[in-house]
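Sequence in, structure out. Go.
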Amino acid sequence: MEATQKKLIRITTVPLSLDKLLEGQLKYMQNHYNVIAISSEKDYLEKIGKREGVKTHHLEMTRQITPLKDLLALLKLTWFLIQTKPEIVHSHTPKAGIVGMMAAFLVRVPNRFHTVAGLPLLEEKGKKRKILDFVEKLTYFFATKVYPNSNGLKEIILANGYCKPTKLKVLANGSTNGINTNYFSPNHFTFAQKEALKEQWGIKETDFVYIFVGRLVTDKGINELVAAFKKLKLNHANAKLLLVGPLETALDPLLSTTLEAIENVKEIISVGYQQDVRLFFAIANCLVFPSYREGFPNVVMQAGAMGLPSIVSDINGCNEIIIPHENGVIIPSKDEKKLLEAMIALKENKAYYEKLQLNARPMIVNRYEQKVVWEALLKEYEGVD
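Output:
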């Protein structure tokens, strides 16, 4: 059987992961394999399938612990795999991981790959943590290969005893999908476009703009970021904080004092979710990303490709993309004081800032260009039976 005829199944819990975390990758793999994308939310999934030029199969899954629904998903996926007989099943995200790897194991799919892009369970405690630990170990047991998307994640997996070292491999320099550095480039935007956006949001030419891109929730470090910025602005009138992302109140909500500041401090500009974040990067000076936990954060790579230095937490992924005092600053997680110091340093020390800025884009292009990651994964696929 020719490689181009082999069936490759890629499975995520929700299609948002296929859309944002694997954009372009499925289309690339379709040139070499018969790709089938599996996820929940049928309409959204079909939209992604059309964009990527791949077949889709709807399988309803939940992101919560729902034993009966999970069992039903397992049975349905097992039957689908019996019918399709794929050579490779590759899962992403925790729920798709356990359902996908178990179903593939049950029908003896020869190549069962699982990518780990983060471990949300690390923030859990007590009984729930024990359940999630067990599920994680099961997922890795059923897989033939496990791909942490950073060296830090690999070390965490080994330290928690989730998996044998022989199953683990970090592809290329890390990241699940790399970054399209042609798309994320400051060259796409004119001076006039940038000035128009600045005017729209009340940003002056002399302002120093700190930008955060992501969900506005506690574990992204937003409470510390807003608190640090409120102190910073007391002595720096020309500072602005630009928050780009949805405010989520159901899970992991922000402190009331943080919400109040976002609403009332005029130097804090919250623009909500944006389909295209590039122009917002283009009017900013520095990314601030004080998250508590990450897999391999795309936003830090995106900011770097757009020519921005970054202030990041000393957490998995971030501390591999950023090299201290080369393309950014690394601070302890949940440390408002160190965060404030780093924000002041980049604003006040022009020579230091310009050095970091000069290195920002080249250090992303050289290590995380998308094709490098895709080719490394294709090599893994082609090395199987």
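Check: The chain has 16 helices and twelve strands. The radius of gyration is 22 Å.
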